[in-house]
Please model this.
Amino acid sequence: MISSKIKAKLAGGSAIRKMFEEGNRLKAIYGADNVFDFSIGNPDLEPPHEVSDALKDLADNPTPGMHGYMSNSGYESTRKIVADKRSAESSLQIGPDAVCMTVGAACAMNDVLHSLLDDGEEVIVLAPYFMEYNGYIENHNGVPVIVPTDENFMPVISRIKDAITPKTKAIIINSPNNPSGVVYPASLLTELNDMLKACDHTIHVISDEPYIDLAYDGMTVPCALSYIDNLIVCFSWSKSLSLPGERIGYTLVSPKNEDYEDLTNAIVLSHRTLGSVNAPAIWQKVIERSIDAKVDVANYEHRRNLLYSNIIDAGFDSVKPNGALYIFMNTPEGLTDAEFAEICAKQNILVVPGAAFSCPGYCRLAFCVSETSIRNSRKAFFAVAEELGIEHKAEL
Ligand SMILES: Cc1ncc(COP(=O)(O)O)c(C=O)c1O
Model:
């Protein structure tokens, strides 16, 4: 008999999964190019050549023990390369002991939350947010506390302050953000740090950074390590190197943390006891040789521009995302996000209702789909607007 907790979660299902299955059904009927499936954020660019060069080299030049266990935090050589990179970006002195190599960001988040949370302690999440956070927090008997952002999806410091209780243990930030694509400015990170430092107990900031290398319009994403003291980074190469299936990432504890030593030890212990033991050996070695590589970000930017134009030109509204892989468009007035998603599906446009990100009134569209599909979807967006009596802002 499975646990009642898991039974309840199974009954809840996943909005994104549902859309994924609907997408497959429609593609079987209409053909892949005529279904505009913006529901899943699966990075579709190939990894840069540095990755395959490293894999070939490792296969051609094996070293004894290269497939063996290592310390639970990962190879020291890999952790040093990561620490040096993040030191240069943040001007902090970060040593390899700050880093624990993980099985992607999902594992990193679970390692960190397991290390921080006692039963019933609260973690603030900023809506809209990546819905898996709820599961990660509840895995470790924590309680998510949802704080809405403003109309541009920027965190509101006064709202966060009002949500803090004696049980608040951490806050999760995610910039560039899934699903809104917004990038938090340095001034906001400073304000957050100042507010948290004035609290009467330590509150850790968990910076979930899988999209930090995917920024557009010439923007550099402010490095949270430079602005927030009690910070723990969760990073993965799922997006920046297009390796989501390979499962490689890290946690990094800022040396400015008040409980730096306890935190670094706790995360390594959690990593071991939660069952990851250590991050994949080969992929750590690949990362050593690809540390400065990334996918062709201009390609994502081009597709963001095309999809954003389709949405705006058809007559809809949306904040323009500066990063990540998503557009979080406004649902037209008078409709719920689920109703709007259904109307879109009639034109073979698949989107995820914002309620799935604790933010009804919006829908998420992932632009990591083929350029042909984005171009072909223009007509369908115009048709949706016409059905709703919305005036176009440009020609088809
Ligand atoms: C905001 C956010 N955090 C974490 C993850 C998990 O990433 P990973 O594949 O590295 O586990 C994702 C994946 O899409 C994400 O969007």
Observations:
- The CA atoms of residues 39 and 351 lie 5 Å apart.
- The first strand starts at residue 36 and ends at 37.
